[in-house]
């Protein structure tokens, strides 16, 4: 009995030391992987996805309802500004299309009664914060502009899937910066090669997916 009691005390001290020092538990005692949260109302619900923010060199289609002469296609200049009919040097970079539409409506209201403006981003040349990047053992690692409703599966299709040497089930998605940065586990082998999409989830602007190679 004394030996059993000593063993229990030693085991308790061992785990307490791990918790206090922040050490990683070995083998079967490792913490459960942190998977990406799933959409609350099914895969079609992406209401939590951040809106696209316009950046320099984006190609915008500015449509003014019933005013073809005021509608135009314009590229955001490197200084982040645009010029449209009746409007000079309006800041566009850093705004969502909806915000820019409202700003243009406010400016045009001095010349047009109740203008209705729609801004669409035709070609994306976004900043790093608006891009999704894939690094490592993908067929075509690259960075590309985020699209509304984009998921992990969409990203992997865009890069051509995994290489023969990829350890897809050890892939991670990195989201955020500094103290807000979080790392999520991905099971890309299961998703792409076995059709298991339970770990598929929305991808946000600025996300980075890292795919390591298998250990031989």
- Over the alpha carbons, how many angstroms does the gyration radius reach? 25 Å
The arrangement of helices and strands along the chain is HEEEEHEEEHEEHE
What share of residues is helical?
10-25%
Largest sheet: 5 strands, mixed
Number of helical elements? 4
Task: Round the mean pLDDT to the nearest integer and report it.
Answer: 80
The number of strands is: 10
Pick out the low-confidence regions: 7-32, 40-48
Shape: elongated
Give me the side-by-side strand order of the main sheet.
7-6-10-8-9
Model description:
The strands form three sheets. Strands 7-6-10-8-9 form a five-stranded mixed sheet, with no helix packed on it. The chain is built from four helices and ten strands, in the order H-E-E-E-E-H-E-E-E-H-E-E-H-E. Strand 8 and strand 9 form a beta hairpin. With 216 residues, it is of the alpha+beta class.
Entry keywords:
23% strand; 3-stranded antiparallel sheet; 5-stranded mixed sheet; alpha+beta; 216 residues; single chain
